[in-house]
Design goal:
By secondary structure, this protein is an alpha/beta fold. It is 36% helix and 13% strand. The chain has eight helices and six strands. The strands form two sheets. A four-stranded parallel sheet has the order 1-6-5-2. Strands 3-4 form a two-stranded antiparallel ribbon. The radius of gyration is 18 Å and the shape is globular. It binds zinc ion (2 copies).
């Protein structure tokens, strides 16, 4: 899998370098070797965001000292609708802008890198005992957007990522959710307002059959987790046994939440 991913990355980098020779996908300076997507300055910055410590259960930022028996203080003693969430990294100053390149510029190199890293995060997380294995899911489900927003944007990142994960994990892709209400963007809202904002915004797709299904829910960025929780609630009401989530980045501030989560 890693070899194939590496080949895909190199192919994407080579295709792009024909148009923009030796361009770093993050800082856009022309000082990278052919076939390398990130320059020597940006690579460690992205790695720092990828390696930011996270809670293995809910995916929030959490120093190792704050995690007890696999749970941080946010999720300890709770049974949230999302059984566990894994991420590529913290939003940060490098991973966040890379996600923006993917989301708003449809950058194919950023897409290839982030798809590969998300697959790696899911694979790595599945090796932890005592938590649901994300390799054993019955379906990969993207967090949907409204038909109107979908028409306006160049691509829908959760659907793209779900396609990548479904292919790499050899699991079926199932668009089991639809968004029936857009609601205002979540920027600047409190946690309670965010929860209200997404309540009732999702429904099961027509014909979706989930009894006993183990679901991997996929989104690009999550801030409070309100959207993921609401989607998981709908899936579980539809019969899903459990719902885990895979996201690119966990954002910690309202500014970072501009990605619209
Ligand atoms: Zn750079
Ligand atoms: Zn946690």
């Amino acid at each position: 899998m890693a070899v194939q991913s590496d080949l895909l990355l190199r192919a994407a980098a080579t295709a792009s370098s024909a148009l923009f020779p030796h361009r770093c996908v993050l800082c856009r300076r022309f000082d990278v070797d052919a076939g390398r997507p990130l320059c020597p300055e940006c690579l460690p910055r992205v790695e720092k965001d990828r390696q930011a410590p996270a809670c293995p259960t809910c995916g929030s930022d959490a120093p190792p000292a704050g995690v007890t028996e696999g749970r941080c203080r946010r999720c300890r003693g709770r049974r949230p609708p999302v059984s566990r969430a894994v991420r590529v990294g913290a939003y940060g100053h490098a991973l966040g802008p890379l996600v923006l390149s993917y989301k708003y510029d449809a950058d194919s190199i950023a897409a290839a890198m982030l798809g590969q890293w998300l697959t790696e995060a899911v694979t790595r997380a599945s090796q932890l005992a005592d938590l649901p294995s994300l390799m054993d899911v019955d379906a990969v489900v993207p967090v949907p957007t409204t038909a109107w927003r979908r028409l306006r944007s160049r691509l829908h990142v959760p659907s793209e990522l779900s396609r990548v994960l479904a292919r790499r994990l050899d699991r079926p892709l199932a668009p089991a959710l639809r968004r029936v209400r857009g609601g205002p963007h979540q920027i600047g809202l409190t946690l309670e307002q965010r929860i209200d904002n997404v309540r009732g915004a999702f429904k099961l797709s027509r014909g979706a059959a989930l009894p006993g299904a183990r679901i991997l829910l996929v989104d690009d960025v999550s801030t409070t987790g309100a959207t993921l929780s609401e989607c998981a609630r709908v899936l579980r009401r539809g019969g899903a046994r459990w719902v885990c989530a895979a996201i690119l980045a966990r954002a910690a501030t309202a500014m970072e939440a501009m990605l619209g989560v």
